[in-house]
Queue: 3 jobs
Job 1
Amino acid sequence: MGLRFFKEQCYFMFLMSEIERRLKRALPHIAIRVQNELILASPVDTGRLRNSIKVISTNEGIVIVMVDYAMFVEFGTPPHTISPKDKKALKFKKGKKNIIVKKVKHPGTRPNPFIRNTLRNKLGQIIIEELAKQ
């Protein structure tokens, strides 16, 4: 164990601190690239979800922020009943016709795991590329 082990431990500690230093410098760049990838991968209806995507770097890592309904897009929803909250009925248009009903049985939505897919497929390579630049 002796001197060789001590040298290896010191070198390992040096490498870990160097990786940590580089990672902290790279985090803002990683956050920008992850944000761009999420924006490209996000589904678009009105653009509200896409426009809400922000990825912020902190001392601890990155934080992904977006509209509250993003979780329903990411994970889908089960079939459910929609009832009015403050009124007696729901009103919506179907084509040119106004529809008024007391409740609607929504079939649910399929998941669109654009966040998980982006992180799974892009994050590793982004980190490698940004660490290499430091």
Note: The longest strand covers residues 90-94.
Job 2
Amino acid sequence: MEKNAILPVKDGEILQAIRTFLHSLLQRNLVEALLVPLELPAGDNVVPTLVRDPDLLLLDEPIAHLDARLRHHLRGELKRFHQERRTTIIWCTPDYLEAIAMGDRVAVLNEGSLKQLGSPAEILNNPATVEVAQFVGDPPMNLLPARIRSDGGTLWLDFDGMQIPASGKIRRIIESTGRDVGELIIGIRPRDVLVYQAEVRPPAVPSELYAAETLHRKTVLSLPTGSGSELIKVNTSTEFEGEVGDKIWIELPMDKAFVFDVETGLALTT
């Protein structure tokens, strides 16, 4: 392992630094995590880079080759390494969990364009665009096209035939932006959608179970909108029991929803 770590390095001081660094890794049982697999090309080995103590460190998916257990362990150790060294690190990853866990600031890029720069909390709680909303969450935020209509002073959102009153926060956004007609994109997280297996009164609306995926600590339901062109993802308890085709009632809490412009994809606020 030491040979693999020092292969691209010839400077005597750096070689000694690598040996010292490897010794500290051995004490933490991290050598395997940083050097697995041993067949990694020298350029993919992060040990020589870490021991140089640079002012700026660029890591491009540095732990993507590891299994889930080692990735989880190494994220914490590299976070500790950063706090000890105070080195500025640019960590590139397509994994939102890595970005949120490792970053003090997170930059979300899409097709070469910066969509949002902020703290992990800002990225999670206030996505600036639909691209950012799609980046975070497992499953990611539901993004539902909705047509606004007015009926006797009441604003309604038509989700492909599924009618829901635009109350509270959503109504204020619509009124403040002067959009009493037209289309919007309504975003709502799977954890915020309410589901019932017995009939309930509006604003809950009927749907039917399209699919149910039981994961470690949750069951993810897929529920179609009115004509079935969109699927709403819902996080629920692993105790959920149902069969494909069962009648399910959905409630979308508008006070927890996000609103995006259908043309620009930008978030709309009051």
Note: The chain has a mean pLDDT of 82.
Job 3
Amino acid sequence: MDRRNHWIKLYVEINDDPKIGLLPVNARWRFISALALAGELDDGGFIPPVNDELAYRLHTEVETLQAEMRMLAGRGLAELRMHPDGEERWFLSHFAERQAPSTPTQRAQKSRWTPPDKKAADTTWRMELYKPLPKSSGVYMISFVGTNKAYIGSSKDIQRRIQAHLTEMVNIPGHVMSGPYRAVGPRGIDIQILDEVPESELYDRETYWIGRYQGQIELLNTESVGKRHYRRNANATNSLTETEAETETETEYRKRGEGSGAIAPAPTPTPRPASIDTFQPIPEEMRAAKSKRGDVEPVAGMVSAAPPIIGVLARLSGYWPGDDIAPALVARFGDVLDEVALTRAVELWRLSGNKPTNWLGIADWYDELRRDPEWTPQARFKRGSNGASASPAKTVSNPAPGSQPVTW
């Protein structure tokens, strides 16, 4: 069986090794050819016997070849050893160790290796951003200058959390802040402390600040309209307008003497979305697709004369329900519209991959959310063995206002 190899490792450090550099030019080349012979033979570092056949192959004479090998031995690069077949042969020192495959650990370390100067630079700019920050609990905002994008978060240790954010946006390609970071670089990151509050207040204050900046800048929060923020915003706006709720929340909060004492200035407001009964235009691509299918496109007169539920459904779904089914939709959704619950119902419906014009399906989920603002589609599968809904959890404590009860 032919065990010969067709390549060897040749290390770049050969240029700086005095044992090789001080050899005559012909002896240096002989060392390279000896490495190739040992690799081809694949016998642990032995080269073939030095005879006329080998000398002919290397285009030299036996005496010259033996003299060059003795020269290599004088530099510690080769030695005569007894071969297992009982014959004395030339053996290249440390050949087997240097040609052995790299271990998985060595390959991983090599792939993660970064030049020392680059490591120092990466660490320096991150430390300049997070080191001055407090280690107390509070709400913060990471902005990316020139992009109108920002992330609002909260932590019981602001400094440590910001440090983690900076590391993640640099090292994790799919991180929510990696794209804006690559667009502006380290010097385009701005960090503001919006509030320093007790840990028990973090949830409410983060929700407040997300609501305050929503629509004014592009928030990168993955849960900006998620269940947690959605429930609190819904409770805060059921009996007040959005502006009144925001003013009341901030006034009451400052009366208690909590918070940072200084509110970060909000960016220049942009025009608010159209009111509930105004239909929102859809992109030209969707308009063309609808026209090809023969879908009816509403005109101003149709929108103004339509019941409120029709306008809201059109705005949330991007599809005009049509006058022919308007009476049925009004009867199904009721006279008093809970826009917050309907917004959440349409959002969950679309995120679940359902058809946005399935009005009855949306109505069913709307009913569930009106009964329980915490309802999710997964709750449909939490049933008992007899098909009935699972019994609600029993509380074992009376929770303080704003906290969650302990259940079992």
Note: Residues 225-264, 266-282, 383-397 have pLDDT under 50 and may be disordered.
